[in-house]
TrEMBL record:
Its main location: membrane. Residues 347-382 are annotated as: Disordered. Residues 363-382 have a biased composition (Polar residues). The keyword Flavoprotein applies. This is KLLA0E16193p. Pfam families: Ferric_reduct. GO terms for cellular component: plasma membrane. One of its GO terms (biological process) is reductive iron assimilation. Keywords: Electron transport, FAD, Flavoprotein, Ion transport, Membrane, Oxidoreductase, Transmembrane, Transmembrane helix, Transport.
Length: 557
């Protein structure tokens, strides 16, 4: 039991371990404990039956044991994924209440006594409550609705008991109840909701991007906020002195930059991130920090509704490297996926003939406009499963232009007549033909029609005026449809940075160190995934199949 409880402590006292990473171990030890207890109960019952002493089961000490066994079974049943996902509150309350009760009951059941173990159990459970109360503050929040699915929650950084150090940490939120008894009950059984901090650690307001759910968030209401809890990202750290050897060739090491609150020690040259839905809260601060520190970064955001993109206008970051895939409003956020088929021939394209001979060529993606980047393989304009025709709806922004914002106009798409037509007929495109072609950059407001086919299915029939024109910041690429991880992404991960800028403007000198092997290249690349479980799992398989480092931030427990 103490090991079981120790693994649930938040934050984990173990160094460099996020408490969530210990949950699989907690689950397995729990299964063993429940199985052992069941075996213990069955064997004793059979033994008593054989010697004709079943009446012994009615002894008070044994009744405590049987009750504890029933509580274990309740915990096991309510923890089943089906029940846990449908009714998280039930799972949580049963888990907490049954744990406390079973700790007490086992103390009365055990012979010889288990005073030592019970003391450890109580210390761990009470320690959790004390630590949580110590790190919890009351704050009044503001809620800014962004789209039907997403809101931004704001509160002052000063209200946090622990200031965040790294980007993309999280806080845990809980209702503040006016009735004191209810308040204390929820301190004992704390149904807290974890939300990632989407603002930067140095910003005076903490901002969260929250998916609309059952947890009620009201402007000007009080909430208990615990944290911040730091993420454990292996390639990023913050320390007083920066290791200059790790700086990339084009990174500036001026004291001003090194002293900047956005300066971090980053042990990666390229970071490829995939996030789904509200997990953009994890991706945005990472994108900002990685861009600032000179890391080449690509952030793929898979979301259901094009209106979620309005979040970009709230944050006003440097969005270099952001690529958005809008998949359609049918289905739930938890079903968001990224395709990766690893059983077909050569899914990562290795060995790939193009990889043998470097052919300098620029990807149209915004993140590759780094003048010091040279590709080691031929590159392609679009992602896997989106065919060239369909990708006509994507928009790559031309960095040579001066304006930094573009606008999508959805007016015609969702106009009353258009909607009626669409309902009556087969899925088909209506309205003026799309102004976008594969390589066309655009600057002025244009009409874009989301394809009403298998790539983008929407159950939204009409939109508010405000939702028809979306302003998309520069550096962002937009595709309607579901992305697929492919060898093109793998090639992007293996592109090399120049060691030195060349005297010729449009060229650079590749790293000539012959000792640098393929494995060294892989060691400098990180793949990060956050959000729905399916999306995180596919990305993990893709990254590990290709020998790339992988970091995950699953939003489901
Ligand atoms: C580390 C981490 C960071 C997260 N960051 C964000 C974020 O930035 N934005 C965002 O919208 N969501 C985030 N989530 C998910 C978010 O915490 C849940 O979606 C939210 O708590 C659901 O509340 P609900 O009452 O609507 O849930 P319900 O409708 O009751 O349950 C829906 C699902 O949400 C999950 N969930 C519910 N309560 C909790 C809880 N207390 N702890 C963990 N999971 C829970 C369960 O998987 C459950 O199946 C994060 C989760 C984790 C673990």
């Amino acid at each position: 039991m103490p090991a079981l409880l120790f693994l649930t402590t938040r934050p984990s006292p173990l160094p460099h371990v996020l408490y969530l990473a210990l949950l699989p171990l907690h689950k397995w030890i729990s299964r063993i404990v429940v199985f052992q207890s069941l075996l213990h109960t069955i064997l004793y019952t059979v033994y008593y039956a054989r010697i004709g002493a079943l009446a012994k089961l009615k002894k008070l000490a044994n009744i405590w044991g049987i009750l504890a066994m029933l509580l274990f079974i309740m915990i096991a049943v309510t923890s089943l994924p089906r029940i846990r996902r449908v009714n998280f509150q039930l799972f949580y309350f049963v888990h907490y209440a049954a744990t406390w009760l079973s700790v007490v009951m086992l103390q009365y059941h055990a012979r010889p006594n288990m005073n030592m173990i019970s003391t450890f159990n109580i210390i761990l459970l009470l320690g959790q409550i004390i630590y949580r109360l110590w790190n919890t503050r009351l704050s009044t929040i503001s809620v800014i609705p962004v789209s039907p699915a997403i809101s931004v929650v704001e509160f002052p950084l000063a209200d946090l008991s622990k200031k965040p150090i790294l980007p993309s940490g999280h806080v845990r939120m809980n209702n503040y109840h006016n009735f004191w008894l209810k308040r204390w009950f929820y301190h004992l059984i704390p149904l807290q909701h974890p939300f990632t901090i989407a603002s930067l650690p140095n910003e005076s307001m903490v901002r969260l991007i929250v998916r609309t759910g059952k947890f009620p968030l009201k402007t000007n209401s009080k909430y208990y906020i615990t944290g911040a809890l730091e993420p454990k990202v292996d390639f990023m750290s913050k320390s007083g002195s920066r290791d200059n050897n790790r700086l990339l060739p084009f990174q500036s090491a001026t004291p001003m930059l090194l002293l900047s609150p956005l300066s971090f020690n980053i042990n990666a040259k390229r970071v490829f991130m995939v996030v789904g839905g509200s997990a953009i809260s994890f991706g945005l601060p990472m994108l900002r920090i990685l861009n600032f520190n000179g890391v080449t970064v690509k952030l793929i955001w898979v979301t259901r509704d094009h209106r979620d993109m309005k979040i970009l206008n709230v944050f006003k970051n440097n969005y270099n490297g952001l690529e958005i895939f809008v998949t359609g409003t049918l289905g739930a956020e938890q079903d968001l996926q990224i395709d990766y088929v690893d059983y077909g021939p050569d899914p990562l394209g290795l060995p790939h003939p193009e990889l043998q001979e470097p052919v300098p060529q620029a990807l149209p993606s915004s993140s590759d406009y780094n003048p010091e980047t040279t590709l080691t393989s031929s590159s392609y304009p679009k992602y896997g499963s989106i065919s060239t025709d369909k990708s006509a709806f994507s928009s790559d922004l031309d960095h040579s232009q001066k304006h930094n914002e573009d606008e999508f106009d959805f007016t015609n798409v969702y106009s009353a007549t258009n909607t009626l037509k669409r309902k009556k007929s087969e899925p088909k495109l209506f309205g003026p033909p799309s102004p976008f072609h594969k390589d066309e950059a655009f600057r002025k407001p244009k009409v874009i029609i989301p394809p009403n086919d298998e790539n983008y299915k929407s159950d939204v029939e009409s939109l508010e005026d405000d939702d028809m024109k979306l302003t998309i910041p520069a550096g962002v690429k937009l595709v309607f449809g579901r992305p697929q991880l492919s060898n093109l992404d793998y090639q992007w991960c293996l592109q090399k940075e120049c060691s030195l800028p060349s005297e010729v403007d449009d060229c650079c000198v590749m790293n000539s160190d012959v000792n640098i092997t393929h494995v060294d290249d892989l060691a400098n690349v990180w793949v990060v995934a956050a959000g729905p479980k399916g999306l995180v799992e596919s990305t993990k398989r893709w990254a590990t199949d290709g020998g790339l480092h992988f970091h995950e931030e699953s939003f489901s427990v």
